[in-house]
Amino acid sequence: MRLLFKQRMFSWFDSYDIYNEDGETVYVVKGQLSWGHCLKIYDALGYEIGTVQERVLTFLPKFELYLGGQYIGCISKEFSFFKPRYNIDCNGWHVEGDFWEWDYEIVSAVGEPRAVVSKQLFNWTDTYVIDVYDPQDALCALMLVLAIDAEKCSRSNN
User: Fold this and answer.
1) pLDDT tens per residue, the chain (158 residues)?
2) Residues 6+ away with beta carbon under 8 Å from 130
3) Farthest CA pair distance, the chain
4) Alpha carbon distances (Å) from 32 to 11, 60, 80
5) pTM of the full structure
6) By CB count within 10 A, which of 5, 15, 68, 92 is most buried?
7) Where are the beta strands (DSSP E) in 8-110?
């Protein structure tokens, strides 16, 4: 399953549209006014199905993930040189990325790829392609991409 993650150009808060291979809207992500990033994820019918919430006052960035209001895990940035590293407490997954953090892979605890994420260059807004191997993993993979993008955005604003 392929998802196209595209940030809206004109919006007050982080706002994204997520499309499938056929160009149909699968998810809509809307940023909320809060201390730290708070991203609400809605399905194509407008029902809230998930949340990515940044925890504030932590040494390194940390984001909590919720499905339908239920906590399912978190992702936190690890201290590292050169290669970005994230600690994921969700599904036993981890992230392996490149120096620029534009392309990375979400991998299971046993080393199986769950999703591959790549940034499309030369667009006016952040645009990512997420190739998810199991469609049931799509929402969790999307939440990880949102958290990593929010972390990079916070870092570039400081």
Assistant:
1) 999 987 765 444 578 889 999 999 999 999 876 667 899 999 999 999 999 998 877 677 789 999 988 999 998 877 767 666 777 888 889 888 775 667 889 999 898 999 999 987 766 667 889 999 999 999 999 999 888 888 776 555 54
2) 2, 3, 4, 5, 115, 116, 117, 138, 141, 142, 145
3) 42
4) 11, 21, 30
5) 0.84
6) 5
7) 15-19, 25-31, 38-43, 48-55, 62-67, 70-77, 85-89, 94-97, 103-107
